[in-house]
């Protein structure tokens, strides 16, 4: 999707891809096959580019730092990426800046013996109650690296195979999950899109509603928090800030320092998409307007169904839904894999949500049991 | 732009390009370098594709017919393309179907001697008045292949180097130039976008206004004419029908059997763009909604300025205009070459037109003397 935005602006994109069959290769002017963890591959990319950016955070910060020190323009930079790469670091920085986050403790598994670890868990559980949530500091995404634990025995079992740092976090009673996308230029100009309501099942985003059921005051507060986080992170590019709405207000859960699933709706639903503003931001070009182009937008993810059928074969069904903007990512179909999304814009929240779901299901995406779907969605 | 739409739908696009530096190559999964007039090159493309389509009409109809006879899916087909390739054929078919076109006669230069030619011109001039307009039956685009002639001497000079068929046409007093984009599936489903007002300078489109100053009745009549033409042409894909609005109503001037400049506004200004509906149509997939997403849309072309500066270097200025959707085509900058366009959507016709022009001029596009620009455009 970033490649589509690059093409629009007449920018030429080179990608560093793990495999020549990666979907991004189809819209790249140049493809370098290699790993971002290999210095030679990253250098190869940097030599071809005016600016290097990312579509995930699974990067090697020391390599980024090294290249940046040699004058390579890399946005976001290592300091910003570090916040997204390491949840323990992120929580510490946010607490220091007065940004609300869930109550948490840190387990340093390399330096704690079994009883030390159990002391932390027991004392945290006493203060904040069980169940609690364990999160690997690094490497998690889409619900991976996050484990609820009902009691000490479960926590012990989760931790047994882990190394490094692990966050111990309170189980937050959530009224809604909220996300806000922010775009920030290296020179500091910052804009945000309206906050959205997201629905997650098993830690994976299923739908994004704009503005969903969110009260205007929450939308406003989320935007302020988002811009605060982006400034604090020294973001360059777009950034997703995922928030929990609780009875006590908003708190920051996760961040992503790149275009994000919760911002896919902006392609058709806002004047400027997150992808175009990401490119504008990393190139330090003026940012585009972020206001929605429609009063209501719903975006629903398309996952591989149990049959393993490719949604591309179901396009006649998905495209038959009026106003459905179908995005397929060209990835190989596997049950449960995120293969695309559908966005519908309009005036009525139930109507746009229903049409987006109809199209996603028509494309073979499985019906999520844990989510109540709109009336009339078969 | 078709490549961007293909990527969105998860379709893989192969292009047959004259040069590996053609802009379309950057967003194509596969590039075949060659000419569409060379059988081997076209076969090479066809072998890789489920369906073959075009972004211009400068094709070899006999090759298309040959491949189609062997079962290659080519949309639009040779019969449709023939109308766009040959203006004499197009006029004859339209006259036969009762579609209003300018009064015209045909000069067959291979079979007319000088006095026969002058007889036709003199008698046409007597009936319809001078000046008249001469148009090469084949090969013209963007004002090329069209010559006004004030008198017999000028007409003689124009015709001297020409061969083949030439249209002799009345000079039409135009109240407005109108275009309508239609999308049609091979199975017959047809949709049209709202008709637009275009402004041409020297036969080249400078701006597209939606709906511009066009009365609702004209917009409606243009859509009907457009659908009639698309049905008559057996179109598969999108089609542009360019019309003259005269004191006596609408008449068809030109057609293009592909995505067209007068439909670029649909990328941001309509629910489904001409490019996505072109792909849907040639794949015989359900067509997307064509209603505008904003009450007013203005799209202004960006041409190379006298300095030969690349508009890419002026992006900071163009993108600074609020709401400006900048499209650069990645083509080498040359004075007068069409290098991109800018679309602005909104509620006020003067406002969107002014912003689109501001951005186009900021990108280095020259100010057209023959067009009155909105107030406040520097």
Can you walk through the features of this model?
Two copies of one chain form a homodimer. The longest helix of chain A is centred in the middle third of the chain and has 18 residues, at 216-233. The radius of gyration of chain A is 21 Å and the shape is globular. The two termini of chain A are 29 Å apart. With 378 residues, chain A is an alpha+beta fold. Chain A contains twelve helices and 15 strands. Helices cover 31% and strands 24% of the residues of chain A. The model of chain A has no long low-confidence stretch (mean pLDDT 95). In chain A, a hairpin with a 2-residue loop joins strand 9 and strand 10 (204-210). Chain A has helices at 2-8, 39-48, 61-69, 78-85, 87-96, 114-128, 152-159, 216-233, 266-269, 274-282, 315-318, 349-362; strands at residues 14-17, 30-33, 104-108, 132-136, 146-149, 165-170, 176-184, 190-192, 196-201, 204-210, 237-246, 249-256, 296-303, 325-328, 338-346. The relative contact order of chain A is 0.11. In chain A, the strands form three sheets. In chain A, strands 7, 8, 9, 10, 11, 12, 13, 14 and 15 form a nine-stranded antiparallel β-sheet that branches. In chain A, strands 3-6-4-5 form a four-stranded antiparallel β-sheet, with helices on both faces. Chain A has three domains: 2-85, Rossmann fold, CATH 3.40.50; 103-170, Dna Ligase, domain 1 (2-Layer Sandwich); 176-362, D-amino Acid Aminotransferase, Chain A, domain 1. Chain A binds chain B through residues 1, 3-4, 7-13, 23, 25-29, 271, 280, 283, 285-286, 288-289, 293-294, 311-312, 315-316, 319-320, 322-323, 325-330, 340, 345, and chain B through 1, 3-4, 7-13, 23, 25-29, 271, 280, 283, 285-286, 288-289, 293-294, 311-312, 315-316, 319-320, 322-323, 325-330, 340, 345.
């Amino acid at each position: 999707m970033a490649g589509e935005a690059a093409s629009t602006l007449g920018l030429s994109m080179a990608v560093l891809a793990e495999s020549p069959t990666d979907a991004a290769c189809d819209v790249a002017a140049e493809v370098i096959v290699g790993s971002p963890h290999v210095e030679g591959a990253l250098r190869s990319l940097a030599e071809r580019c005016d600016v290097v950016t990312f579509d995930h955070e699974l990067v090697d910060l020391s390599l980024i730092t090294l290249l940046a020190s040699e004058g390579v323009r890399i946005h976001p930079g290592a300091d910003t990426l570090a916040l997204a790469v390491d949840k323990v670091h992120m929580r510490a920085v946010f607490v220091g800046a007065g940004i609300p986050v869930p109550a948490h403790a840190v387990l340093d598994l390399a330096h704690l013996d079994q009883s030390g670890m159990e002391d932390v868990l027991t004392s945290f559980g006493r203060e904040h109650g069980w169940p609690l949530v364990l999160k690997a500091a690094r490497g998690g995404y889409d619900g991976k690296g996050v484990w609820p634990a009902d009691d000490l025995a479960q926590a012990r079992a989760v931790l047994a195979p882990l190394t490094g740092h692990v966050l111990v976090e309170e189980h937050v009673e959530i009224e809604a999950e909220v996300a806000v996308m922010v775009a920030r230029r290296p020179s500091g100009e910052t804009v945000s899109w309206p906050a959205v309501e997201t629905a997650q099942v098993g830690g994976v985003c299923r739908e994004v509603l704009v503005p969903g059921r969110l009260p205007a005051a929450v939308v406003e507060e989320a935007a302020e928090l988002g811009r605060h986080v982006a400034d604090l992170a020294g973001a360059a590019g777009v950034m997703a800030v995922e928030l929990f709405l609780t009875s006590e207000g908003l708190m920051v859960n996760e961040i992503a320092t790149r275009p994000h699933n919760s911002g896919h709706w902006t392609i058709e639903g806002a004047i400027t998409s997150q992808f175009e503003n990401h490119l504008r931001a990393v190139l330090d070009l003026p940012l585009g307007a972020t206001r929605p182009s429609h009063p209501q937008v719903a975006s629903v993810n398309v996952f591989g169904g149990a049959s393993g059928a490719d949604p591309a074969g179901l396009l006649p069904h998905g495209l038959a839904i009026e106003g459905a903007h179908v995005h397929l990512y060209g990835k190989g179909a596997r049950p449960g894999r995120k293969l695309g999304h559908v966005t519908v814009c309009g005036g009525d929240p139930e109507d746009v949500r229903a049409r987006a779901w109809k199209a996603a299901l028509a494309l073979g995406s499985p019906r999520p049991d844990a989510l109540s779907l709109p009336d009339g969605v078969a």
